[in-house]
# Entry
Amino acid sequence: MLALADPELDNGPRTEKSTTVRMCAVSREVRPISELIRFVVAPSGEVIVDLKRKLPGRGLWVSASRRAVAEAVRRHQFKRGFKRDVRVAPTLATDTENLLARSVIEALAMAAKAGQVLSGFTKVETALQGRPDKTGLAALIHALDGAPDGIRKLDALARQNRGNIGESHEIPIVSPLTSAELDLALGRANVIHAALLAGPASRTFLSRSQTLVRYRSADDDKIAGTEPGIRNS
# Structure
């Protein structure tokens, strides 16, 4: 259980290192911090998102859901939670989604620089036709606006490998970004499919992708811990 003098606000990032759960200011549910987004008040008095949970000052937590953030704005929850007059942009829910998408793009770019990304249908197909357990294939990435035929073919190869190798090597299939966003991350044009290789940078990408997908599609009434839009082969 969460035992805090003020359940709505934390005491700042430096004093909350051991905290693994917080209360959502909208739903009042206690959830793992991986399923929440932290907001702080800037010196200007404006409420801003703190995706890395490192900004100074006391923080208010909201479920990682576009609907929850929009509801917090509509209900003036930030003013009540911070117990002071604050400025809240009416576009905060959209602004938060854009920042989440940017963080995913940056993580994928870092993974590519580390040599942990293969892009293009042919390269991904070849990787899936081999032994993903040997090559260290960590995830299959599709553009949100990718053609269904190509997605189905690569997904089928991923499922086939799961059957050949065993259920212990399930390959996550993620679609957090559009083709244009994949292009931006990887520095090339018309990227629809990519394969993510195992490594620290790829783990960061997957973690941020899960947060973005959850934000876009999560329902506060769903069981905590589910990953909508993130599926296994």
About this structure: DSSP finds eight helices and ten strands in the chain. Residues 92-113 form the longest helix (22 residues). The two ends are 35 Å apart (CA to CA).
